[in-house]
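Sequence only, no structure available. Ideas?
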Amino acid sequence: MIKDPHSTAAALLPLVGGPANVTSVAHCMTRLRLGLADRSRVDDEALRALPGVLGVVEDGESYQVVLGPGAVGRVTEAFEALLATDDTADALARRGAELKARQKAHNATPLKTALRRVANIFVPLIPALIGCGIVAGLAGLLTNLRWLPGLTPALTALSAAFMALIAVFVGHDTAKEFGGTPVLGGAVAAVVVYPGVAKVTAFGAALAPGQGGVLGALAAALLATRVEKWCRARLPGTLDVLLTPTLTVLVSGLVTLYVLMYAAGEVATAIGTAADWLLTTTGALAGLILGGLFLPLVMLGLHQALIPMHTTLIEQQGHTVLLPILAMAGAGQVGAAAAVYVRLRHDTSLRTTIRSALPAGLLGVGEPLIYGVSLPLGRPFLTACAGGAAGGAFVGLFAMLGTDVGATAIGPSGWALFPLLAGGGGWAVTAGVYGGGLLTGYAVGFLATYFFGLPDGAARPVCDPEEHEPRPADRPGPRPASPR
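Reply:
I predicted one. C-alpha cells follow.
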C-alpha cells in the first residue's frame, strides 16, 4: 500500500530515466502510463522492487507502472508536480509529442489505436459510474427494507442524475480525444438527452430523449469534431470565432437528430437484445467463452474498449449482465496464483510476489498477478483462463435458468463488485450466484494449475549454485550425520 505518494513519485522518476526521459504522463484505473524518449534508460528490476509498485507493463506506445486503484491517481499528481519543476518541460513535451507520434505510426495498428481511443473517452467516467452505482444500490436496499423513506428519493436522484446526462460527458471527452473543442462536443451530444427531442420526427417516428445513448453521443461528437476542423481550415480568423461554433452545432446537431440518434438507437437495442439472447439461450457456453478469453484482453489493455457496451446495457436495463461473467477471469487468476504459491515452496521471491499481489487480485485488480506470476510462468496463464471459463459458465448457466446477474456500474470486479450487483431475483440471490461463480473460478483455476499448470520438476528444490549437484538432503542413501 502506498502511504506517501510524493515519496513514491520521487523514487519512480529517476528509475524511468529522470525528467528528461519522460515525454507524457497519464493514468487509468490502476496504471501510471508514461511516454518515454529512451526506453533503455528505465531500470525495470528496481521499479518492480519499489514498495507500492505491483508490476510494469509495456504496450509499444507507453510504459505502464501498475500501482493499483486509488493510489495511481495520487502518485500521478505528485509525479506531474515533480515534472513541472523542470525548466525544460515545454521543450521536452514538444519533442516527446513528435516522438510519440512516430512511435504510434510505427507500432499501432488501426484497430488497436481505435480501441485505445475509445478507452480514453470512457475511462475518465469510471469513478462517477462507480460512485453513482453504489449509491443506486444503497437506495435500492433502503427501498426493499423500507428504511428511511424520506432519504431514498434523494439517493435515487443522486445516482440517476449522472446517467441521465452521461451523453454530455461522453461528447466532451470524445471531442477532446479527437482534437476538437470539448465543450462543442458536449453541446452537440447534449441534444441526445434533451427532453424536447420528443417533438422531432425522424424516419416516420418521434424521437425519444436518450435514444441512442452513449453510442449516439459518441457519433455526434465525432461528427462535430470533423465539422469544426473543416471550418477552421477554411474560414478566415475574423469569421472563425462566430461561424465555426455555429456551423458545428447546427450541421452536426441536425445530422444527429435526423440520422445518428435513430441509427445509434437501433444499434443499442441490438446490443441489449443480443446480450439477453446470448445468456438466456447459450448462457453456459457464452459464459465459458467470455470468461476464458477476458484475461488476454486485460493483458493487452483492450478490456477498456468494452466500456461503451457495458454503459449501453446499464442505460437500457439498469445493469450490465456481461461484467459479472467477465469478472470470473480474475477468479481463475487468483486460483492459479494460489496453486503456484502451494507448489513452488522453494521459490521465496515468487511466493513473496504472490502474497503482495493476491489481495489486489481478490478485489479485481489482475495486472500484478498476470505480469508478476502467471504470464512469466506460461502455463499458469492458460490454466487461469480455464478457471475464468469455468466461473463464467457457472454464472451463464444460472442466466439460462432465469437468474441473471448484473452490475449497476463498471470498474470493480472480484469481491469489490458485490455492492454493485443487481438482478431479477433480488440482491441475495444475485450475490449467491456471483459468489458461486467466484468459488468455481478459484477452485478450477487452482486445480488446473496444481496438476497441469507447472512443468515437471518445477516444484523440486533447486540445485546448489556453487556445487551444481543435488544438496545432501536430496541425494539417495543415508543422510549425513548431524553435527554435535
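Residues 87-96, 460-484 have pLDDT under 50 and may be disordered.
Hope that gets you unstuck.
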